[in-house]
Amino acid sequence: MVTVGTVCKRRCWHPIYGLFLGCGALFIIKEIIQLHKTVEEKIIENVARQTFPLSEANGGTVDEEAAKSPGEIQQTRIETLRKVCQVNSLNKDLVISELWKGFFFVDQELKVVYCGVPKVGCTFLKRLFYVLSGKSRSKNPYDISANAAHGLPLETFQTHNDSEIAYFIEHYKKVLFVREPIKRLISGYNDKIRAINPGYWSGLGRRIIKTVRRNYSEISERCGHDVSFQEFLDHRIYEEIGQSKPDMHWDTVYRTCHPCMIKYDFIGKMESFNDDVNLFLHQINARKDIVLHEDYTSKLDNILIEVQNFYDRVNKSAECGLTFEEIVKRYWEVLFHKNLITPPTTLPNIQKTTTKEELTEIMIDLYHRQKATKTLTNKSFDVLKSVSKATIAKLQDFYKYDFEMFGYNKTEI
Ligand SMILES: *[C@@H]1O[C@H](CO)[C@@H](O)[C@H](O)[C@H]1NC(C)=O
Ligand SMILES: *[C@@H]1O[C@H](CO)[C@@H](O)[C@H](O)[C@H]1NC(C)=O
Ligand SMILES: *[C@@H]1O[C@H](CO)[C@@H](O)[C@H](O)[C@H]1NC(C)=O
Ligand SMILES: *[C@@H]1O[C@H](CO)[C@@H](O)[C@H](O)[C@H]1NC(C)=O
Ligand SMILES: *[C@@H]1O[C@H](CO)[C@@H](O)[C@H](O)[C@H]1NC(C)=O
């Protein structure tokens, strides 16, 4: 049985993670985010602005909920949660440890507390709360780049004392967003490990290899670039059953957000993200001028960040022994996974000699041609085929409460 509040006493957080990922606001940057206009945006300024659905959303509704009204769905989700808490006697005293407080965002104007679960749309939701707070010039969360999301000056529980926190929990509307736990792990793996991400490889990647791989090569030990999904999960299991405490980014929602101790008023799901965000905005009577579609330039901005990443990271990746073809393959996979680019029928040819300007043109061209799709959920399940059934069964057991509390059926493998 997990004792909330003591979970993070030991090693479970490498400070550098906060810079790359993490819904926890460990680094409070006071600067106002510059809403810059890139050169590329200016080039295409005259192109008609198009709208696309939220890129982190999978679209659609959760199957078993299809016939219900949005209000009924919320009611059912909350009842399910409370029932599971009660049946398993999980209603205990709330203690949120210091580090964990960074996952709780509070907006005193809106009177909202948001528990930001990593890998569950938090990059978007943090930008949304920032826009809602009126501190941004923009009405569209996507005008703030995804990379800037984690540096936004949002208030968290870390800057409040216990009596204030108790007040917020008692009086404010409390919201969290959840996701099928295994898909959350897939997303984490794709973003941090599968992606061209030498910064993450050298931290987490190397640690995973040293922990779970029996016979690793010198280059894998040095780079941590070639962790398989099976190994990523083996490491997750190791954390859970071993002495090492889980990395906060993959930890259960149960331990991150204390859903039995805090009476959440709203439970959103990644699987019905668009609908849930809209309903939530309606319920908190949010300003009506918020633009929830990802418009042409801001989505492109995120794609162009990936173009820059490619050039920043390609040489370091090559030093890890990856061939250029492997780097490009992984690069595309992750662009598709992030839903930034819809897989085209034939992939453009990226070569060593392709310049950044040429790659930018390729991306703008792909961007023009693509249509909004809902392939994300479906595609991401493919990686499960590479993993042993025993592993999935174990993880389903570790995330048992997350499955039950939030009404997820365990995936048939
Ligand atoms: C908590 O903070 C509030 C606001 O800053 C302050 O008024 C109050 O005295 C503090 N309470 C305790 C117990 O420190
Ligand atoms: C370890 O891997 C190396 C190279 O991949 C191989 O030559 C060696 O036989 C392996 N050793 C064991 C004990 O499997
Ligand atoms: C990567 O390395 C090549 C030569 O190996 C060099 O020409 C190129 O400028 C480097 N790129 C970056 C972005 O450092
Ligand atoms: C993916 O989606 C298609 C069409 O919706 C469906 O036929 C197929 O079974 C799905 N595949 C998986 C692995 O869920
Ligand atoms: C989940 O499992 C329950 C019980 O086995 C079943 O009735 C329900 O249809 C399942 N839902 C989905 C979406 O598969």
TrEMBL record:
A Pfam family matched in the record: Sulfotransfer_2
Keyword check for Lyase: no
Transmembrane segments: 12-29
Membrane topology: Single-pass type II membrane protein
InterPro entries for the chain: Carb_sulfotrans_8-10, Sulfotransferase
Subcellular locations according to the entry: Golgi apparatus membrane
Lineage top rank: taxon: Eukaryota
Keyword list, A-Z: Carbohydrate metabolism, Glycoprotein, Golgi apparatus, Membrane, Signal-anchor, Transferase, Transmembrane, Transmembrane helix
Assigned EC number: 2.8.2.-
Key word Metal-binding present: no
GO biological process: carbohydrate biosynthetic process
Family that this chain belongs to: Belongs to the sulfotransferase 2 family.
Designated name of the protein: Carbohydrate sulfotransferase
Protein source organism: Owenia fusiformis
